[in-house]
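re: ur question from earlier - yeah i can do the single chain one, its not a big deal. heres the input i used so u can compare w yours
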Amino acid sequence: MDEAGKTWVNGLKQFEANCRKRSPLPSRDDLSPLEAQQCRILGGSWLAWLKHHAPGMLEERAVLHKAMHVDPEPVVVFLSIAPGLIAAHKIFGDRAPDGIVCLKEDQFKRWPRKSPDRSMSWHAYCMQTFRKVTDHELGEHYRAQSIPEDCEAWLHIDETL
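and the output i got, formated as tokens:
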């Protein structure tokens, strides 16, 4: 990685540390039943991503390095909600490996404004999160047949770029 990339990554890691100081993650024991289930699902997805997707992504980056001059070993920014970051903490312990940064999506959105990497030369990201599905998205027919009135539908989002 070139010096500009190292500076960018070091700044991002410092930003991550500051975010964690300002907004510490809750204990897994303090999660609601819904959040605990999300934590389990996101942790499994994150492990599967590391095992099955990350190696191929690095192979693609090696090709892009030659064609587009991006770093072949970018820092991977893991974006998630609190249960996903708690799962990542359980996987990595107190310190993620040097090539991984874990942030909430809204936190990471604040970082590029300060120091953009628009061409994604130094980073790639994996976003694992959930979002509640609206009644409109479900449609009345599907909701009436599949989901009890007192329940909610959630969409698991898994995105890599």
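Residues 52 and 110 are 29 Å apart (CA to CA). not sure if urs matches, ping me
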